[in-house]
Amino acid sequence: MKPSPRLILIIAAMIMAQMLSAQTDKSSFKFGKPTQEELQLTSCALDPDADQVILFEYYDHAIETSNSGLLQKRTITRRVKVLKESGVSAGDLSFEIAHGKAKYVENISKLDAVAINVADNGKTVSSSLKNNMIFKEDVSSTRQLVKASVPDVKVGTIIDYKVTITSDNVTSIPTIYLQHSVPVIIAEADVHMPDFIVFYADFNELIHPITKNITYEEMRINNSGSTLSYQERWISGRTASVPPVKNEPFVWNLLDFKSNMSFELKSVELPGEQPRSFSYTWDDVFKMLKDDDEFGGHLKMSDPLKDEVAQAIAGKDSDRDKVKAILDLLSKKVTWNENYSIWSSNPKNALKEGKGNSADINFLLMSMLSDAGVRCTPVLLNPKDIKNFSKYPTLKDINYFILAARIDDGGTEKTVYLDGTDKWSSIDVIPSNLLSFNAILYNEPEATRKVDLSSIAKGSTNYIMKAVVGEDGMIETDLTAITAGMDALSLNGKIDSYKSEDEFLKEYMKDGAVSNVSGNITRNRDQVTMNVKFEVQPEESGDIIYIKPSLVDLINTDIFTSETRMLPVDMDYPSSIVLRATVMLGDKWTLEGTPQSSSFSLGDKDITFSYKALKGSGMIQIVMELRQKEFYFTADRYETLRNFFNETHNVLEGRIALRKVS
């Protein structure tokens, strides 16, 4: 049997990795002296489209002892081969370090780089990085970029560089990523420190495995005539033939999936001293937050809009109506400056200035709701576009909070979730990137503190369409689109991005066959209603015209174009699209044919699709439904998910045929 192209690529990748790994690892690597196999390499079977490949990288991260104390030193060594013109950017080096007013300042103590090319006579020519090619740029009061441009980089160049960063911060070790957006042949990492400094070590191997090892070495240090003996702990990781992780649709953060090694300080156990624990529980985190003036100091803040809140909720009988009225008031008073934070120096100052970070706004919202008798608790999270929570409770992973509010919902007490940063958010309707799978309810006991925010939200769009086929075949159409929940939040944001509602409607109905668009939009927090009039010019062939199964494109089915996928699919929330259409044929047209009625589903009705076009007396009744109960699909379900949308696409590519009556 003839092997598949994919199998051939896999075998080629394995052969290449064996050839190169036999030449280059941390024991055989010679800076500036690539092997002949590396010099002759012109493509990478791990990714034939790659414009560069990392042939070798080695991370040596150490916490070292010296006469003056402890020091963290991180050295990164990397060899990169440029395969295509677009890969020349590999010669532009950039390192971000803590600087200026940062609590712990970092320094680049050494940066060496060299470009190796093969001349016409077959000999290698090296071009080294000079000091005048290194630049520094302050990006904030605490961060600095150190940039360097390696000379003479072109297609075929091999770049070797080695950078060493030092810091007096020995309590935090940066995450080491052994997988990148380009293929990697060999990646190795050693993290070592005295055994009296204890770190948790986690290995993320969601996509590609890491070979792990932990060893110990005997160490001695002399200080003021005395000798300190201890063991040095080495945490090592190694991986080979690493495929690239590239951005794919419906992925919030690639870093959550790349193979990596991460570290969390557990304890410091100095000889002869009582061990000091840095291993926090969530109760420890809650206490730190409570004791901090920029968080705990605002939990019982008085409402600075007390009189206006009273006026806004006057006459509102239900908690739901009160909450929405408060959200309306807040959105008129303050806007979000698009900065994530759990800290607020002064929410009332943000109110005075009319702009604030997420913590400023949600502390204001909390005080207003409390004033109205609605009890609230912060929900701690990391937005999905940053990263997932660590496995261990830690304050550094929290970048945001929303509010969990207890309301009377028709006689039953219910917990709902609120965020004040988006002016169109509502009850259980918050920006998609806040729908975290892992959130923590502040100051709650262990049994009830974990919250899956991905399950709170849903969206829906219902289309009601009435169309009349004119004598000339032109179809005059009235469309009412009612969008609710998360879909309304998204749609309101899109409308705001246009200069006018008319401009938005024309773009919304953009279709080569659509013309003369007009209409109006009614907007609120939970629902957007659009009433649109337009004309549709059908396709013609003799005395037959052809119209789309839904008259115009209402469902985007061309969303999974890749044949394979490495990452899960996160479509944010459950949703539904429903169309009910009546097409009046008059006495000049008769139905010639319709797409076959279809109904199919994915999994246990995780997603369902159905379509019917039924002939009536001088009319056609169209019913189409796409209902999505599940929204998160692992990579092993991608093929069936793609097939489902391809099948939906095939139905919607059919045509309703009408014949003109003689």
Radius of gyration: 31 Å
CATH fold assignment of the largest domain? Immunoglobulin-like
Number of helices: 10
Please give the order of strands in the largest beta sheet. 5-4-8-2-1-10-13-12
In angstroms, what separates the terminal alpha carbons? 59 Å
| Beta-strand content estimate | 35-45%
What is the chains' assembly state? Answer: single chain
Q: What characterizes the major β-sheet?
A: 8 strands, mixed
Write down the CATH class of the largest domain.
Mainly Beta
Query: Which second-level CATH architecture of the largest domain applies?
Result: Sandwich
What ranges have pLDDT less than 50 throughout 5 or more consecutive residues? 1-21
Number of domains: 3
Estimate the global geometry from the Cα principal axes: globular
How does the helix and strand content classify structurally?
alpha+beta
